[in-house]
């Protein structure tokens, strides 16, 4: 079993939005995926995909659909099938528990900037900077996680170079967008980290 890495930590509380379905089997262990709805302070809803081992799910009664707290890591998978999104983002659950707490959505990451930052502006004129962080995992693997900084954070992040080590906190969000496929607009969902605080760190 993977170790728990302190450079990738997610805490979510929300409502189970669907029954777990089998995702895949690896080394004779079954993994399931299910949607979790987490409400923002604004009232908007993020629907996030949660991955969990069968034995973890068997420890928590998930019917009827309850409010639950999940702790784990944000993971990425490069989908090479050509079906669906190329970069698949899920929250890998380490623990699941029933809860009466209010919705929460918090993530802490430390990783290496692996693409040049992309500074742009929203139609309302607000600065926004797209970042891609590589977060190391065991056995030489890494998760590649898209992040977005806003306002003054975006301006600062635009000056970073590839290879810069970054520590950040924020929340995991889902975002709808329209992609043209064969001239037809198709609604898609992107998953990313909306940055609240950020800092360059010395890893030498």
Chain-wise SSE layout:
Blueprint: E1 8-16, E2 21-26, E3 29-39, E4 45-53, H1 54-57, E5 67-78, E6 87-98, E7 104-113, E8 118-121, E9 127-136, E10 142-150, H2 151-157, E11 165-181, E12 184-200
Parallel strand pairs: 4-6, 10-12
Antiparallel strand pairs: 1-3, 1-5, 1-7, 2-3, 3-4, 5-6, 7-9, 7-11, 8-9, 9-10, 11-12
Description:
The protein is mainly β and about 200 residues long. The chain contains two helices and twelve strands, in the order E-E-E-E-H-E-E-E-E-E-E-H-E-E. It has helices spanning about 55, 150-155, and strands spanning about 10-15, 20-25, 30-40, 45-55, 65-80, 85-100, 105-115, 120, 125-135, 140-150, 165-180, 185-200. Strands 1, 2, 3, 4, 5, 6, 7, 8, 9, 10, 11 and 12 form a twelve-stranded mixed sheet that branches. A hairpin with a 2-residue loop joins strand 11 and strand 12. It is globular, with a radius of gyration of 17 Å.
């Amino acid at each position: 079993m993977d170790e728990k890495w302190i450079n990738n930590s997610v805490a979510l509380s929300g409502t189970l939005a669907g029954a777990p379905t089998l995702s895949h089997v690896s080394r004779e262990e079954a993994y399931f995926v299910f949607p979790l709805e987490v409400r923002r302070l604004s009232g908007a809803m993020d629907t996030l995909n949660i991955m969990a081992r069968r034995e973890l799910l068997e420890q928590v009664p998930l019917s009827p659909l309850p409010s639950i707290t999940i702790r784990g890591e944000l993971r990425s998978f490069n989908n090479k099938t050509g079906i669906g999104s190329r970069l698949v983002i899920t929250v890998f659950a380490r623990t699941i528990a029933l809860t009466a707490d209010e919705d929460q959505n918090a993530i802490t990451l430390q990783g290496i900037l692996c693409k040049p930052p992309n500074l742009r502006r929203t139609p309302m004129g607000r600065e926004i900077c797209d970042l891609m962080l590589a977060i190391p995992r065991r056995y030489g693997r890494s998760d590649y996680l898209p992040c977005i900084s806003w306002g003054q954070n975006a301006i600062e992040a635009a000056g970073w170079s590839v290879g810069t080590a970054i520590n950040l906190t924020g929340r995991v969000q889902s975002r709808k967008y329209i992609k043209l496929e064969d001239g037809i607009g198709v609604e898609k969902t992107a998953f990313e980290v909306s940055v609240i605080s950020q800092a360059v760190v010395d890893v030498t």
